[in-house]
Amino acid sequence: MQTGDHRLLKNINQRLVLNLVRLNRIISSSDLVRVTGMQPSTIFNILKDLTNNSLVLNLGKGDSTDKGGKKPFLWGLNREAAYAIGIDLEIGQVTAVILDFSSEIIKKKVYKIANFKNVDELVQEMVRVVNDIIRESNLDPANILGIGVAVAGIVNSNSGVLVMTDVLQEVNVPLLETLGKALPYPVMLENNANASVVGDKWIGVAKESRNCLNVLIEVDEGVGAIGIGFLVNEELYRGSSFSAGEINPSMSDLHDMLLNVRTHLTDGEVLKAYDQSPKDISIDILIDAAKKGDKIALTFFERLGYQIGRNISRVVAAFNPDMLVLSGDVAELGDVIVAPVKSVMDMELLAVTSEAVKMVTSSHGHYSVATGAACLVLSEYFRVPTVRLVNGSEETLEED
């Protein structure tokens, strides 16, 4: 495949067909004709073009229908056609994920880093991480579709300006432009909670949700934060100043919360080993202890869940989502963290609101932001443009 061949499809009909192949994973030519309403010759020509560009593969023939007839040809995405890289940029670490063309995770890695003094150091680290993970994955750089970069803070995704973040002391940083000059790939910049909700919608637990609220929980040494991503009518909502979901929660960091259980560490099956060194307890250690049934760790997450619930209950009441996804490291705990959050929701929300929202945890855990950042790239590539009509409805743009 030549560089750039897979970057732009000839027309909207190709995108429609490609999306149907993606969504169904395996689909027959006859089903494509039936679903799209296009002529068989049109579908044939589109599939020929997509195959020539190595975007789809002919998987052979399927079974005949009950009525008999010719066996239909089956089609699927070429997983190796292109790749998207997602970057989760945090204080002290960078998490990277690579998705193949079918949105499967093929590589994920966490890089421990020093804090950035300025944007130049940040960009140098991003370039190093991208080059490293591409090399380790043995990928052809020509097949990299793009890089999605997600950062905590206020991100103007239209202009690519990082308005403010704890990662850098600088404000109004033209990060997208700077990264674009340093990397030979298209780059997208987004807020971390926004990226996470896109990942949930694209390949996660929110596939069927129309109005989803993603609560990204970050708790560790020196960090106690909640970010919220909104999906409204299946589209990302950023707010008029790109600060939707920045609620400035009343959250303690890890060690402040540990003070509440500090004197009881010896009662824990796992945490008793840290009675004399509580400062060595990380969020990963607490999660592992909770998974093993350590009652002190379980108490810690119960209290954390109450804090989360109190901070987001009014947001849930105002937004009235059909799904609430808890993401970040603590998502690995499933009902251990869901139960206390739901308990607060049930107490503070109207019954009709509480009963309408399905509360779940992200299936991507620590990698939810980086995975979502990569999904930003794929979702933009597969997007079928629409136009808004005078009467307010939407139609799909189609070309000859």
Could you tell me the CATH topology label of the largest domain: Nucleotidyltransferase, domain 5
Shape: globular
Mean pLDDT, nearest integer?
90
- How much of the sequence lies in strands comes to 15-25%
Please report the total strand number as a whole number.
17
Which properties best describe this structure?
five-stranded mixed beta sheet; single chain; 17 strands; 400 residues; 36% helix; Nucleotidyltransferase, domain 5
Explain what the structure shows:
By secondary structure, the protein is an alpha/beta fold. It has helices at residues 12-24, 29-36, 40-52, 119-136, 175-182, 192-203, 254-258, 283-291, 295-319, 335-348, 351-356, 368-382; strands at 27-28, 56-61, 73-77, 83-90, 93-100, 105-112, 144-151, 154-156, 161-164, 187-191, 212-220, 223-232, 235-237, 323-327, 358-361, 386-388, 394-396. It is 36% helix and 24% strand. The strands form five sheets. A five-stranded mixed beta sheet has the order 6-5-4-7-10. A five-stranded mixed beta sheet has the order 13-12-11-14-15, with helices on both faces. A three-stranded antiparallel beta sheet has the order 1-3-2. Strand 4 and strand 5 (93-100) form a beta hairpin. The longest helix has 25 residues, at 295-319.
Question: Any chance you could write out the topology, listing elements then pairs?
Answer:
Blueprint: H1 12-24, E1 27-28, H2 29-36, H3 40-52, E2 56-61, E3 73-77, E4 83-90, E5 93-100, E6 105-112, H4 119-136, E7 144-151, E8 154-156, E9 161-164, H5 175-182, E10 187-191, H6 192-203, E11 212-220, E12 223-232, E13 235-237, H7 254-258, H8 283-291, H9 295-319, E14 323-327, H10 335-348, H11 351-356, E15 358-361, H12 368-382, E16 386-388, E17 394-396
Parallel strand pairs: 4-7, 7-10, 11-14, 14-15
Antiparallel strand pairs: 1-3, 2-3, 4-5, 5-6, 8-9, 11-12, 12-13, 16-17
